[in-house]
Design goal:
By secondary structure, this protein is an alpha/beta fold. The chain is built from five helices and seven strands. The chain has a seven-stranded mixed beta sheet, sandwiched between helices.
Length: 180
């Protein structure tokens, strides 16, 4: 399937994610529960050095992770053993090397965390992969995304940015935190 930005998506979603990452700094991956947003992303970055992960103990509906958050983090780490789990987002501001940062879900994040994510999206050495189950909670952060991918079991497609902004403005919460 041919899409904008001359990206040819296939049934290989890890390869689709890599294609999106090739020319875009801030990548948003959206998809329904069970489509493999995290699994496919981890497969896509498995050979990349300096990959960091900021988790979220709740999913896109605010529900706690099945089992426990610790088990969920163990699962994520098993997909990429050299993955760095981040507990303190502000610690990332002192990193000067090039890193890939995976941010898992946006729902339920405080205004402080939203502000930190905003800063990270602007840092030239930090390539961001933001994963969400529901795009509407991105709020104004959607404006900082360079490409928005809707992941499906057998392919992916690009969501038009104007549509994504309209979804966030119309359906999202009114004050998702600062945007500089």
């Amino acid at each position: 399937m041919k899409v904008e930005n001359d990206i040819q998506f296939t049934p290989d979603n890890p390869a689709n994610i890599l294609k999106a990452m090739e020319n875009h700094k801030n990548v948003l991956i959206r998809g329904i529960q069970g489509v493999g947003k995290i699994t496919n992303t981890m497969k896509a970055v498995k050979d990349n050095p300096n990959v960091y992960y900021v988790g979220n103990p709740v999913d896109y509906e605010g529900k706690r992770r099945p089992g426990s958050y610790e088990k969920y983090q163990q699962y994520i780490s098993s997909l990429k053993p050299d993955l760095t789990l981040v507990d303190n987002v502000s610690s990332l501001f002192s990193i000067s090397s090039t890193i890939t940062l995976i941010i898992d879900e946006i729902y339920g994040r405080s205004a402080e965390q939203m502000g930190q994510i905003t800063q990270l999206l602007d840092m030239p050495n930090v390539k961001i992969i933001q994963i969400v189950g529901c795009m509407k909670y991105m709020g104004r952060l959607i404006e900082k995304m360079d490409i928005i991918i809707d992941l499906h079991h057998d392919t992916a497609f690009i969501v038009d940015k104007a549509l994504a902004v309209a979804i966030c403005n119309t359906l999202g919460r009114k004050d998702p935190g600062p945007l500089s």
